[in-house]
């Protein structure tokens, strides 16, 4: 039988419906039914066993990731990247311990790769009770660090791409300490995801050392990427470079001082806020960010859209909305930073 997502699949649809009902306790059954149908279609379309194993393992890893993180949705989390080779005596290790301790004191949880070096420093500073570890199984066995060993918030992955999803999807901010190829890979992916709108805007902080590891990177970005037109000036809004733990913490705190979250409803951008903006503040945004607003539209206050009914806990938040062309995400980060700079409206 040829299965379809757009047409009826009797009697398969009836069998799937009964299966979901028999299992009981299934959340969002319409989505689950479609996933079951997709699985059957995979079985019909793919005959290469290795591909089937990859798809199966990916789904299992993502299910477990969601299970581990879901009880902590109310807590903001900061992902920390950095070298696994940083020694405990190194100043950057000590800086990471101090920084992650300050994060925990400000009610943030910390996500690391769960290994040694900067990863261990992040878990050590935050403490095991405020930490997640998304570890990777490697041929040379990267074991969990002592802080996260047998921790219920430890997830071990076979595939790097699943691990990367957890690092970014679950994070409200990302801080990158100096590191090697893996650290640079993780940092560049976050740059790309924010720049292209494939993840929500969030603070991306490059924590520098005394030798200017990230400062040299910054110079390369200016002198090679910007000059040659590979990036635009607005992309410098995507990140903050600092040597200060307190400045890094302040950047994160300020980013969420007024801004809460956003959602796209087709091309309409809806920004949820923790406090209402005045008409004068909205007018200021309109004047300062004309390139962000699609021609013929304007920024306006609004209430929750019907499409947001699946997030009832956010319905009470004040909002602003505008038509967005999905091009200027660096400018969008600057826009959010400007919103956060406004004093409370009278």
Structure description:
31% of the residues are buried. The protein has helices at 12-23, 29-45, 49-69, 91-105, 118-126, 160-169, 181-195, 213-226, 245-255, 279-288, 329-341; strands at 77-81, 109-112, 131-136, 154-157, 173-176, 204-207, 240-242, 259-265, 268-273, 300-302, 319-323. The chain is built from 11 helices and 11 strands. Helix 1 crosses helix 2, helix 4 packs parallel to helix 5 (118-126) and helix 4 (91-105) runs parallel beside helix 9 (245-255). It folds into 3 domains: 12-70, no CATH class; 73-255, Rossmann fold (3-Layer(aba) Sandwich); 259-341. The chain is an alpha/beta fold and 346 residues long. 42% of the residues lie in helices and 15% in strands. Strand 6 (204-207), helix 8 and strand 7 (240-242) form a beta-alpha-beta unit.
Can you tell me the CATH topology of the largest domain? Answer: Rossmann fold
Strand coverage percent:
5-15%
Q: Determine Rg (CA atoms, Å).
A: 22 Å
How far the N terminus sits from the C terminus, by CA atoms, comes to 64 Å
Give the fraction of residues assigned to helices: 40-55%
Number of strands: 11
Spans of at least 5 consecutive residues with low confidence: none
CATH architecture of the largest domain: 3-Layer(aba) Sandwich
How large is the count of helical segments? Answer: 11
Q: Supply the number of structural domains.
A: 3
Major beta sheet summary: 7 strands, parallel
Q: What's the CATH class of the largest domain, please?
A: Alpha Beta
Structural class by helix and strand composition: alpha/beta
Shape: globular
Q: H/E series, N to C?
A: HHHEHEHEEHEHEHEHEEHEEH
- pLDDT averaged over residues: 95
Strand order of the largest sheet: 4-3-2-1-5-6-7
């Amino acid at each position: 039988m040829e299965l379809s997502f757009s047409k009826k699949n009797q009697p398969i649809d009836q069998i799937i419906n009964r299966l979901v009902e028999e299992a009981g306790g299934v959340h969002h059954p319409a989505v689950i039914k479609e996933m079951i149908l997709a699985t059957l279609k995979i079985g019909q379309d793919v005959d290469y066993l290795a591909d089937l194993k990859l798809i199966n393992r990916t789904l299992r890893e993502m299910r477990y990731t969601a299970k581990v993180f879901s009880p902590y949705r109310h807590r903001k989390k900061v992902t920390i990247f950095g070298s696994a080779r940083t020694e405990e005596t190194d100043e950057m290790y000590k800086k990471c311990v101090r920084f992650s301790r300050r994060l925990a004191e400000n009610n943030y949880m910390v996500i690391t790769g769960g290994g040694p070096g900067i990863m261990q420093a992040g878990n050590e500073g935050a403490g095991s009770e405020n930490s997640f570890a998304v570890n990777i199984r490697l041929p040379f066995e990267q074991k969990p660090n002592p802080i996260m060993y047998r921790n219920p918030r430890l997830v071990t992955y076979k595939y790097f791409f699943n691990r990367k999803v957890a690092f970014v999807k679950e994070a409200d901010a990302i801080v990158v300490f100096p590191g090697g190829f893996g650290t640079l890979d993780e940092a560049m992916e976050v740059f790309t995801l924010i720049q292209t709108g494939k993840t929500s805007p969030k603070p991306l902080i490059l924590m520098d050392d005394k030798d200017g590891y990230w400062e040299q990177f910054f110079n390369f970005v200016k002198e090679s990427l910007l000059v040659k037109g590979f990036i635009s000036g607005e992309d410098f809004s995507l990140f903050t470079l600092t040597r200060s733990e307190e400045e890094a913490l302040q950047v994160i705190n300020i980013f969420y001082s007024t801004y809460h979250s956003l959602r796209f409803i087709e091309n309409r951008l809806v920004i949820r806020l923790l406090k209402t903006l005045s008409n004068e503040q909205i007018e200021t945004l309109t004047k300062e960010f004309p390139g962000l607003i699609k021609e013929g539209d304007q920024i306006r206050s609004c209430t929750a859209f019907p499409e947001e009914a699946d997030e009832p806990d956010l319905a009470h938040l004040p909002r602003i909305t505008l038509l967005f062309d999905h091009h200027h995400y660096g400018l969008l980060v600057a826009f959010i930073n400007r919103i956060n700079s406004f004093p409370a409206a009278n």
